[in-house]
Write a structure and sequence with these properties.
Elements: H1 2-26, H2 33-40, E1 45-50, E2 53-60, E3 69-72, H3 83-89, E4 95-98, H4 116-130, E5 135-140, H5 142-153, E6 158-164, H6 178-183, H7 188-192, H8 198-207, H9 217-228, H10 232-240, H11 248-252, E7 258-263, H12 272-280, E8 285-289, H13 296-299, H14 301-315
Parallel strand pairs: 3-4, 3-5, 5-6, 6-7, 7-8
Antiparallel strand pairs: 1-2, 2-4
Helix pairs in contact: 3-14, 4-5
Length: 321
């Protein structure tokens, strides 16, 4: 009996030590916004108040552009994901990108509401603050859904759409990134507010690239900074707790000229959904980049932005200029 108790005591002590070691290894407290600004919000970044929330925005290119290009990032990304596109497009066009509520340096909103309806209200409110009456609206993943849902709700404000590996249909992810799986798992998601294993961010980014060799230490540092921005991990859990329901009928009503870009190696939202968008949006154009993954605009900005520039030239006569 005494030996059994002693054995159990040793086992319990070992478990406590292992848990303690794991916590020390994975400990990653929230990082205050002010601490992140120096590296991630240098000019031309600015913060604009929308419904009382300071929104991280970059607004570049000629201000006399009558039809700005507005770009919306996906889950756990930020406006930095569009850096390559913005650098090229802003030479001749006004390009606006921003961090959605719950992500990037914008961070969590006061309500904790990250349903699609909240984002669809948010985008026009931001455009109003920037004095933009009409735009070309593009987005990746969640941002692609925000883009087309905004176009559905306020078609007069969206002259053309650019959908990059967008969500919108009911689907079973082919390969959910590690960080998303943790954030969506009860018990683990509460711990994630304080813990972030060193390899989790890198693995999550590698999961969404067609060629994981393109994932650099600098890219991992950026995604880790966005993840640890104060409040973002809790907001991600709240966002992933929202019921995902496809709205195929809304997609079929879209009338804007639409460019659909997709990575052929997307393991999160498979290319079959690109073909569904192309079939459901009359007159849309689909371009598939076979070697790229879920974030093709980030993985290979040069080749993907060339398709955007061609689309903008083709649609100039239809009011998308």
């Amino acid at each position: 009996m005494h030996k059994t108790l002693r054995f159990l005591g040793i086992v319990s002590a070992a478990i406590v030590l292992l848990v303690g070691a794991f916590v020390v290894w994975a400990w990653a407290p929230d990082v205050p916004l002010e601490q992140l600004k120096a590296r991630w919000a240098a000019p031309p970044s600015q913060f604009i108040s929308v419904d009382g929330l300071p929104v991280h925005v970059r607004d570049e290119g000629p201000r006399d552009d009558p039809l700005p290009i507005v770009l919306v990032h996906g889950t756990s990304a930020s406006l930095h994901t569009w850096e390559g596109w913005s650098r090229e497009l802003s030479k001749t066009r006004r390009v606006i990108r921003f961090d959605l509520p719950g992500f990037g340096l914008t961070g969590p909103n006061a309500t904790g509401d990250y349903r699609m309806a909240a984002y669809v209200r948010f985008v026009p409110a931001l455009l109003d603050r920037l004095g933009v009456a009409r735009c070309v609206l593009g987005g990746n993943s969640l941002g692609g859904e925000v883009a087309w849902a905004t176009a559905h709700a306020q078609p007069q404000r969206v002259a053309a759409l650019i959908l990059v590996d967008a969500t919108g249909y009911t689907f079973d992810p082919a390969g959910l990134p590690l960080g998303f799986r943790i954030a969506a798992t009860p018990g683990l998601r509460e711990a994630m507010r304080y813990l972030l294993p060193p390899g989790a961010v890198e693995q999550s980014v590698r999961d969404v690239y067609g060629d994981p060799a393109r994932v650099t230490p600098e890219l991992v540092a950026y995604y880790r900074a966005m993840a640890t921005r104060a409040g973002n991990r809790q907001a991600l859990s709240q966002r992933l707790a929202v019921h995902f329901a496809g709205r195929e009928q809304d997609i079929k009503t879209l009338k804007q000229p639409t460019l659909i870009l997709w990575g052929g190696q997307d393991r999160l939202v498979a290319p079959e959904y690109a073909r569904r968008f192309a079939a459901d949006i009359a007159g849309s154009k689909l371009v598939l980049f076979e070697p790229l993954g879920h974030v093709p605009h980030e993985e290979d900005p040069a080749v993907t932005v060339a398709a955007v520039q061609a689309f903008l030239r083709e649609t100039a006569g239809s009011g998308a200029r």
